[in-house]
Amino acid sequence: MYGEGRAICVGRDMDTDRIIAGRYLRTKDKNLWAAHVFEDLDPTLAGRLRGTVVIAGANMGCGSSREQAAIALKAAGVAGVIAPSFARIFFRNAINIGLPLVECQVSCREGAWVRFNLEEGWADVNGQRCTARPLSPRMLEIIKAGGLVAYWRNHR
């Protein structure tokens, strides 16, 4: 599984409330969530996410266990998320909806070109490569399938 795009840099301890604010969760419209992702961080960011790779600091996705945070990122067109560590529930929610995650430490420069390969276990930001913590073969299959629901539909 390979992905690439321009870097969008966010800080450490990025909680799910900052990814998608609770005021937007009265609906199940993932397009609405995508339109408001990271709104409280930067109101212009949602419109610039398609085809990007979000690079975060440690503890990405902490806070509440809302699945909508991962869904909002994927619906906004984020190609993947790189961080040195992820909150456990966010990590599992992202895998379950097919959002690629790369667990490694890279320096982030807004707009830098980012590539990652989940099967080989690396991420590269403008030529600076880091080795990623490997995902299990099952997690890779789930991401390739587009999420857990699609994975199970294919494995009945």
Question: How would you briefly describe this protein structure?
Answer:
By secondary structure, this protein is α/β, with parallel strands linked by helices. It has one domain: Aconitase, domain 4 (Alpha-Beta Barrel).
Structure description:
By secondary structure, the chain is an alpha/beta fold. The chain has a single domain (2-154), classed as Aconitase, domain 4, CATH 3.20.19. Helix content is 28%, strand content 21%. It contains six helices and seven strands, in the order βααβαβαββββαα. The protein has helices spanning 16-19, 30-35, 68-75, 88-97, 137-145, 148-154, and strands at residues 2-9, 52-55, 80-83, 101-103, 113-117, 122-125, 128-131. The protein has a seven-stranded mixed sheet, covered by helices on one side. α3 links the parallel β2 (52-55) and β3 (80-83). α5 packs across α6 (148-154). The radius of gyration is 14 Å and the shape is globular. The model has no long low-confidence stretch (mean pLDDT 95).
